[in-house]
Design goal:
EC number: 2.4.1.-
GO molecular function, one term: UDP-glycosyltransferase activity
Enzyme class: transferase
Strand content: 5-15%
Strand order of the largest sheet: 11-10-9-12-13-14
CATH architecture of the largest domain: 3-Layer(aba) Sandwich
Keywords: Glycosyltransferase, Transferase
Number of helices: 19
CATH superfamily of the largest domain: Glycogen Phosphorylase B
CATH class of the largest domain: Alpha Beta
Number of domains: 2
Radius of gyration: 22 Å
Distance between the termini: 23 Å
Organism: Prunus dulcis (Almond)
Number of strands: 14
CATH topology of the largest domain: Rossmann fold
Shape: globular
C-alpha cells in the first residue's frame, strides 16, 4: 500500500489493512515516509503485528534542502512547500521500485496523486488498484469537471459557490514537476486495473458511486467508512474531559473541531466564538495553530474576555482531543466540522448531527452531501465566503435546540445503524474483488 503523504490518507489505508487482514490471510506492507509512519505505528495494536508491516520510503532531501525529513508529510507543512513535497514524492519512484523488487507483492494499492506508482507494477508483473480516500460525490464532481468543465453536474444538490469554485479550480491547476494535480488524478484512475476502491458506503452515496463508475468506465467498490475505533477506552474514561462531559445533559454539548491540517484565521475564530456565546451552549472547542504560530496563546485569538464569560460552560483544548470518544458521548448534540471526509464519516458512524462549516478542498461538496443525506445543516456564508456570528448561532440553535435538530439526530442514527449493518458485507465484497484480481494474475 502506498498512500499520499497526508494523515487523512494514511489512516484510511491503515484501517483498510486491518479490515482486510481480519477477513483473509493477507500480508500487507504500508509504505510511507518515516515521519508519517511514526505517527501511525502507535495506532496498530499487537494483534496485527504478524500481518501488517511498515516500510520506510525515503524521499530525496540532499537535492531539496528546503524540504528536510520532518517536512516529508503534509501535517504541519508550510503551504508554499506543497509542490516541493509532490516533487520529492515523484523523485522517490526509484526508491519505491527497489522496495517493490525486494517485497515482490501480488498487488499494489495506491493513492490519487502518484501516477508513477501504478506504472511500476506491470514492469514487475503484478496488478495495481487505486484506493481513493475521498467521497464518491466529490470524486465524481471532480472527474466530470476535468473531463468536461462546461457540462453541468447532474445532481443539483452538489454544487460550488463562486468563491469555492475559484479555489477548486486553483487546486486542479496547481502543478509540480510540470504535472497538474488534475492530470495526476486522471492518470491514477486510468492506470488502476478494472476496479477502483473508494472510502464510502452505498447507504449515503449510491447514486454518486454509480455515476463515478460511468465516468471512469470501471467498477467502483465501496470499502465502508473505515472509522478507527477508539483505543484505550479505560484510560479515556478517566480523563478530565470525559468527566466534564458526564456532568452535561444529553445532546447539549457542541463539539468544535476543524481537523489536523486546517488552521482558522483570527477572524474565523472570533465569529465562531461569538456564535457559541450568542447561543449560550456548552462546548468543547479544539484549537490548533500552525508550526509558525506554535507560540501563539489561545487568549490572543479569542474575543477579549471570552473565556471568563463562558466560564465552565466551555472547554478549549489545544492541539488534540479524543475525537472518537467525544463524538460517541451521549452529551454531544452537534459537531461543528470542516467536513473533511474522515470527520463526516466519523460523525455519521457515531450517529451525531453535523453543523457543517467547510473550508477548502473537498469540504464544500461534502457539506452539501451532509445536508442532502439529512445528517447535518450547513452554516451559510457571505458572497465572499466570510463567516457571520449570527448565522453560526442560528445553525447551532437549529441543530442543538430546535425541532430540526431532532429530525437530524434521528436520521443520523438511522443511517448509522444501516451503515454498521452493511460494514461486514462491504469488506467481504472488497476481499472478493481483490482475490479475483490476484487470482487473475496467477492464471495468466
Amino acid at each position: 500500500m502506498l498512500p499520499w503523504l497526508a494523515h487523512g490518507h494514511i489512516y484510511p489505508y491503515l484501517e483498510l489493512a486491518k479490515k482486510l487482514t481480519t477477513k483473509r490471510n493477507f500480508h500487507i506492507f504500508i509504505c510511507s515516509t518515516p515521519v508519517n509512519l511514526s505517527s501511525i505505528k502507535p495506532k496498530l495494536s499487537q494483534k496485527y503485528s504478524h500481518c501488517i508491516e511498515f516500510v520506510e520510503l525515503h524521499l530525496p532531501h540532499d537535492d531539496l534542502p528546503e524540504l528536510p525529513p520532518h517536512y516529508h508529510t503534509t501535517n504541519g507543512l508550510p503551504p508554499h512547500l506543497m509542490s516541493t513535497l509532490k516533487r520529492a514524492f515523484d523523485m522517490s519512484s526509484n526508491n519505491f521500485s527497489n522496495i517493490l523488487k525486494t517485497l515482490s507483492p501480488d498487488l499494489l494499492i495506491y493513492d490519487f496523486l502518484q501516477p508513477w506508482a501504478p506504472s511500476l507494477a506491470p514492469l514487475q508483473n503484478f496488478p495495481s488498484i487505486e484506493f481513493i480516500t475521498m467521497g464518491a460525490a466529490f470524486t465524481s464532481f471532480s472527474i466530470q469537471h476535468l473531463k468536461n468543465p462546461s457540462f453541468k453536474f447532474p445532481f443539483p444538490s452538489i454544487y460550488l459557490q463562486d468563491y469555492e469554485a475559484k479555489k477548486f479550480n486553483n487546486v486542479l491547476e496547481s502543478s509540480a514537476n510540470g504535472i497538474k494535480d488534475g492530470d495526476r488524478v486522471q492518470q491514477c484512475s486510468a492506470r488502476s486495473c478494472n476496479i477502483i476502491l473508494v472510502k464510502t458506503s452505498r447507504e449515503i452515496e449510491e447514486k454518486y458511486i454509480d455515476y463515478l463508475s460511468d465516468l471512469m468506465g470501471k467498477k467502483i467498490v465501496p470499502v465502508g467508512t473505515l472509522v478507527q475505533e477508539p483505543m484505550d477506552q479505560k484510560v479515556d474514561e478517566e480523563t478530565w474531559i470525559m468527566k466534564w462531559m458526564n456532568k452535561m445533559e444529553r445532546s447539549s454539548v457542541v463539539y468544535v473541531c476543524f481537523g489536523s491540517e486546517y488552521f482558522l484565521s483570527k477572524e474565523q475564530i472570533e465569529e465562531i466564538a461569538h456564535g457559541l456565546e450568542l447561543r449560550k451552549v456548552s462546548f468543547i472547542w479544539v484549537i490548533r495553530f500552525s508550526k509558525e504560530e506554535k507560540n501563539t496563546r489561545v487568549e490572543e485569538v479569542l474575543p477579549e474576555g471570552f473565556l471568563q464569560r463562558v466560564g465552565e460552560k466551555g472547554v478549549i483544548m489545544e492541539g488534540w482531543a479524543p475525537q472518537a470518544k467525544i463524538l460517541q458521548h451521549s452529551s454531544v448534540g452537534g459537531f461543528v466540522s470542516h467536513c473533511g471526509w474522515n470527520s463526516v464519516l466519523e460523525s455519521i458512524k457515531f450517529g451525531g448531527p453535523i453543523i457543517a462549516m467547510p473550508m477548502h478542498l473537498d469540504q464544500p461538496i461534502n457539506a452539501r452531501l451532509v445536508e442532502e443525506v439529512g445528517v447535518g445543516v450547513e452554516v451559510k456564508r457571505t458572497g465572499e465566503g466570510s463567516l457571520q456570528r449570527e448565522e453560526v448561532a442560528k445553525v447551532i440553535r437549529d441543530v442543538v435546540v430546535e425541532k430540526i435538530g431532532e429530525g437530524v439526530r434521528k436520521k443520523a442514527l438511522k443511517i448509522r445503524d444501516n451503515m454498521n449493518k452493511k460494514e461486514d458485507e462491504e469488506i467481504d465484497g472488497v476481499v472478493e474483488e481483490l482475490m479475483q484480481v490476484c487470482t487473475g494474475r496467477e492464471s495468466k
